[in-house]
């Protein structure tokens, strides 16, 4: 387990190798990969972690190195960090001791050289308790000295002016003299004044030299101090990022159950209190490794079905009997559905209306300090925070809702399905696919203005039309209606509740999504999961989706339970994992879905189910015997150069493309959004403020009119609320929910070109 023999390192070398590090009494010594570089000793769990996850670092410049025995040694920096290490042999230990001593000597030397050797002021250790006070005293003393020199220069300047004027007068008088007797006395007077002027000038020159020397001396020192502060700030940001991650893991562990793995199920070892005093805070992730709260046990296990199921007829999906013995035919949704449906329409020859754009202007690289804005917004509702466009992407929330239709083909296929269970699989895959565009999209969409709309007319290309309208401003709510000639209708009303928690932002979509298929009259409904944006303060922003979705068929009682696993630092599962089970009204499982929300989903037909062994929490997990998994959905690749275009998909690139004939309230006509897309961010910020103030004024005027109408003798009751133009709030008799449903008229108004009823939004 030791490293191959290596030569004794020199002070400039980077030294690497395996050592055993003490963690706690349960685990004892654990093998870790150590790296010694630039006076810092860092360690990782594996060599592969070197690029992204450092487990701990100690500065050798202030550390003590002590040898305990032939293989063990200790590195400590005074109590805050202590590493108890063990080498594989005495020779290996001596190599490490030599490398550490050389690195420490060099680190101390570099630290000493960082202080100006010619400085009159003593160096102050940044670790001392009164370091800040001493440094302030030093700066104040330097400023007083420099002020004194400046005062000397001012005095010398006044004297030079005074004596120079007197000398000039004497010279003028000397020119006017004619009597030889007076000449000698005047020459003597001029000589005296010239001497005074020379003395004063020399004093001025000496004072300037002293001031320049002192300024140069302290300039060097301050430049070094500034560089040191910059390096310390970078280290502090990195440390803060690590602490934020550790705090996040601890929060998750606290919220979940604390469970030891089966290998440590001995009650004598189950007591968390018995942790060694040698275990230091830098190895905190090692101590928490065995109670990862977020890695919840799977509710079910899938195993390959018995071969006998592959020899029998595998598909009763669409009421077809088959004597073929291949599982490919038994679960191929598309082929079976189309083959069993003689009334299936032939593929349409689609005629594109126009050539859609494939690029937008590249995102400008403008710097903005996020923390300077967000620090005053902790705990507030995101929709009430005035944000510059620097944090936005050039799309509105209405356009983001329309992006859910990127994989509309899944609903087209579902509409052709004869089996409600098969149809459920497609609807569930469509539900997951709507999150695939969010994985890199860290920009915030524009909050739509009240009455703003967005149409997505892909009737001739894709067979569907979509309309969104902002029906409420506080709380912000958008209604969406889409229908297809393939026989499906999608409608949703989404209200966003969001909170900024300091290190992450949680976005909780409220409201439901419904999908109705005309042919079968199947009516589905589901809700969205929580979106979390991490590393708001420091580090690279990343997005996670977590939660559970129940897709319900209100007609048949079929149900699909989808689980979006939150990212877990300790989990061995693939990130962004999604699993689901399709069951009928009696609770019998028929299909298993699995995959990731950012790449693909697969389904497997369940042939048999049974109760398996207990999980880590004592829950009995179900074992499903399934046929070979088949892919039901895969994410489309991003267009070339997407990283410079806000990571927009091919559909997203076309959403803000100008189009003729759209309503005057359409998001494409929004000026601040258009200016941002074109790269004019300063103008976009000014336009955004104008639009928001206009909206506030309109709202105040509407409220005044409503109060006036309510208080008049003819009118009674409370002030009326805003009425949407294209949607009407009503109860859905099938799902029992109240939501805004499209009442018609938009597409007819577009054909007639009559937008007189539209409000002045922009």
UniProtKB/TrEMBL annotation:
Family matches, as Pfam families: Oxysterol_BP (PF01237), PH (PF00169)
Name of the molecule in the record: Oxysterol-binding protein
GO CC entries: cytosol; perinuclear endoplasmic reticulum; plasma membrane
One Gene Ontology term of the molecular function aspect: sterol binding
Membrane topology: Peripheral membrane protein
Feature: compositional bias, Basic and acidic residues: 666-707
Localization of this protein: Membrane
CDD domains: PH_OSBP_ORP4
Region Disordered, annotated ranges: 114-136, 265-285, 307-329, 658-720
Assigned protein family: Belongs to the OSBP family.
UniProt keyword list: Coiled coil, Lipid transport, Lipid-binding, Membrane, Phosphoprotein, Transport
UniProt key word Secreted: no
GO biological process, one term: lipid transport
Species of the source: Astatotilapia calliptera (Eastern happy)
Domain PH: 12-105
Chain segments annotated as coiled-coil in the UniProt record: 219-253
InterPro entries xrefs: OSBP_sf, Oxysterol-bd, Oxysterol-bd_CS, PH-like_dom_sf, PH_domain
Predominant place of localization: membrane
């Amino acid at each position: 387990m030791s490293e191959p023999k290596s030569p004794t390192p020199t002070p400039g070398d980077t030294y690497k190798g395996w050592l055993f590090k003490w963690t706690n009494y349960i685990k004892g010594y654990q093998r870790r990969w150590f790296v010694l570089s630039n006076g810092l000793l860092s360690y990782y769990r594996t060599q592969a972690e070197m690029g992204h996850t450092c487990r701990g670092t100690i500065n050798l410049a202030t550390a003590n190195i002590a040898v305990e025995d032939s293989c063990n040694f200790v590195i400590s920096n005074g109590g805050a960090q202590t590493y108890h290490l063990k080498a594989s042999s005495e020779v290996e230990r001596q190599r490490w001791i030599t490398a550490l001593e050389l690195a420490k000597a060099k680190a101390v030397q570099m630290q000493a050289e960082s202080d100006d050797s010619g400085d009159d002021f003593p160096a102050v250790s940044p670790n001392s308790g009164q370091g800040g006070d001493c440094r302030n005293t030093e700066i104040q003393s330097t400023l007083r000295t420099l002020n004194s020199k400046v005062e000397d220069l001012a005095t010398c300047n006044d004297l030079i002016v005074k004596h120079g004027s007197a000398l000039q007068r004497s010279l003028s008088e000397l020119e006017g003299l004619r009597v030889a007797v007076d000449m000698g006395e005047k020459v003597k007077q001029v000589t005296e004044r010239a001497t005074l002027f020379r003395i004063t000038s020399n004093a001025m020159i000496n004072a300037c030299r002293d001031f320049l020397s002192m300024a140069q001396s302290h300039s060097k020192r301050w430049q070094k101090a500034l560089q040191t502060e910059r390096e310390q700030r970078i280290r502090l940001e990195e440390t803060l990022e690590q602490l934020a991650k550790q705090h996040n893991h601890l929060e998750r562990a606290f919220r979940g159950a604390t469970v030891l793995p089966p290998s440590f199920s001995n009650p004598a070892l189950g007591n968390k209190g018995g942790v060694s005093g040698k275990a230091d805070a830098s190895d905190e992730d090692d101590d928490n490794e065995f109670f990862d709260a977020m890695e919840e046990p799977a509710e079910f296990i899938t195993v390959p079905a018995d071969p006998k199921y592959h020899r029998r007829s595998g598909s009763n999906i669409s009421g077809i009997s088959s004597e073929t013995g291949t599982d490919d035919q038994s679960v191929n949704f598309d082929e079976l559905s189309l083959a069993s449906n003689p009334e299936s329409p032939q593929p349409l020859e689609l005629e594109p209306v126009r050539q859609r754009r494939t690029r937008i202007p590249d995102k400008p690289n403008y710097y903005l300090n996020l923390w300077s804005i967000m620090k005053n917004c902790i705990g507030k509702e995101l929709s009430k925070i005035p944000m510059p466009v620097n944090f936005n992407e050039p799309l509105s929330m209405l356009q983001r809702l329309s992006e859910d239709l990127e994989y509309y083909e899944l609903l087209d296929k579902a509409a052709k399905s004869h089996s409600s269970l098969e149809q459920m699989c497609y609807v569930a895959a469509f539900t997951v696919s709507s999150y695939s565009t969010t994985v890199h999209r860290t920009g915030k969409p524009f909050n739509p203005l009240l009455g703003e709309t967005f149409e997505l007319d892909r009737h001739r290309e894709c067979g569907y039309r979509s309309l969104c309208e902002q029906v409420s401003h506080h709380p912000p709510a958008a209604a969406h209606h889409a229908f297809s000639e393939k026989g499906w209708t999608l409608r949703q009303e989404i209200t966003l509740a969001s909170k900024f928690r300091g290190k992450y932002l949680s976005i909780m979509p409220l409201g439901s999504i419904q999908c109705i298929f005309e042919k079968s009259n199947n009516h589905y409904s589901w809700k969205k999961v929580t979106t979390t944006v991490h590393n708001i303060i420091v580090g690279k922003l990343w997005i996670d989706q977590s939660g559970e979705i129940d897709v319900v068929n209100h007609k048949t009682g079929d149900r699909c339970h989808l689980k979006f696993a939150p990212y877990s630092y300790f989990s061995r599962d693939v990130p962004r994992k999604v699993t689901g089970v399709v069951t009928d009204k009696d609770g019998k499982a028929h299909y298993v879905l699995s995959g990731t929300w950012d790449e693909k989903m697969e389904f497997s037909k369940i042939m048999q189910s049974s109760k398996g062994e207990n999980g880590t929490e004592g829950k009995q997990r179900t074992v499903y015997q399934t046929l070979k998994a088949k892919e039901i959905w895969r994410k489309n690749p991003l267009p070339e150069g997407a990283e410079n275009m806000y990571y927009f998909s091919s559909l997203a690139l076309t959403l803000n493309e100008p189009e003729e004939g759209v309503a005057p309230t359409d998001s494409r006509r929004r000026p601040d959004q258009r200016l941002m897309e074109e790269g004019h961010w300063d103008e976009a910020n000014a336009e955004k403020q104008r639009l928001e103030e206009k909206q506030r004024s309109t709202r105040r005027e509407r409220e005044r009119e409503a109060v006036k109408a309510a208080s008049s003798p003819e009118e009674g009751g409370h002030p009326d609320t805003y009425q949407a133009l294209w949607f009407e709030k009503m109860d859905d008799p099938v799902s029992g929910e109240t939501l805004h449903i499209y009442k018609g008229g938009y597409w007819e108004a577009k054909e007639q070109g009559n937008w007189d009823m539209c409000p002045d939004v922009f």
